[in-house]
Structures are given as C-alpha cells and as structure tokens.
From TrEMBL:
Region of interest called Disordered, as start-end residue ranges on this chain: 41-60, 116-138
Protein name (record): Uncharacterized protein
InterPro entries reported in the protein's UniProt record: B12D
Native organism taxonomy: Eukaryota, Fungi, Dikarya, Basidiomycota, Pucciniomycotina
C-alpha cells in the first residue's frame, strides 16, 4: 500500500485513474451487498427468509432501475394472484373449494375487464360445430 501511495505521489497523472478504479470497486461492492440483502431472487438466510419471493407485493418494483415506473404504479390496485392458491386451515372443506372457485372467477373477471378496456379479446374462442360439439380454437 505504501508503494502505491509513493507511485501516485511520483506520477500525479495516475491519481484520477486510481480514484476512478477505487470508486468503481466501492460501487460494485455496494451494489452486490444491496442485491444480496434486499433482492427476492437471492436467499442467503434460509431460516429467517425461506421464501423471499413471497414478500413481493403486486405493485412493488424489484428491479434495480425501472424504465417504466407507470407500469408498477398501475399494478398497485390489482388483486393478488396468489390469493387463489392460499387455502383456509381446513383444506378439505367445502369452504376451501368455494373460496378457490370464487378467487378464480374474480381473477377471470378482472382479466376480462382489463382486456375490454384495452380492446383485446380472450385467446380462446369457442364455436359450436354442426354436430353440436363445442370446438375450441386457439
């Protein structure tokens, strides 16, 4: 370290280079530390946060830098899609199956309402053949 300081005093043209490289190393360490501690993609502490990806809210941006912040703001009011997979304590009850059906129906209605406002259509269209059978086209 002393020889590096001596070299920088002797050659002042290398000082900006040393500052730039040192700043880059510090920035890389800071970003890596932030990503390891805060990202839902990485799980170092498996006992404290066994599934960090389940902590992400519907409108939360998990990217380091977002080019479309309006996209995340528009998702804030959407229902949580994981709600249909959560079951009550008694998973075999009729109440659990009814809750799943209601959540699936609500998700479909919300999706179709979004399609209607954007002028899109469902990708599955049904038609009836001449023999009365329903055919599905994708």
């Amino acid at each position: 370290m002393a020889s590096l300081a001596r070299l920088l005093r002797r050659e002042p043209a290398l000082q900006p280079l040393a500052v730039a490289v040192g700043g880059g190393v510090i920035a890389a360490l800071a970003v890596s530390t932030h990503y390891l501690r805060k990202s839902p993609d990485v799980s170092i502490n498996k006992k404290g946060r066994p599934e960090p990806w389940n902590d992400v809210q519907q409108g939360q941006n998990t990217k380091f830098m977002s080019y479309q912040p309006d996209f995340w703001a528009s998702r804030k009011d959407h229902p949580d899609p994981r709600a249909m997979f959560r079951v009550p304590v008694d998973a075999n009850s009729a109440q659990a199956s009814e809750a799943k059906q209601q959540a699936a129906a609500k998700a479909k209605l919300d999706t179709m309402a979004g399609f209607a406002t954007e002028g899109q259509h469902d990708s599955v269209q049904g038609r009836v053949n001449f023999d009365g059978q329903r055919a599905v086209e994708h």
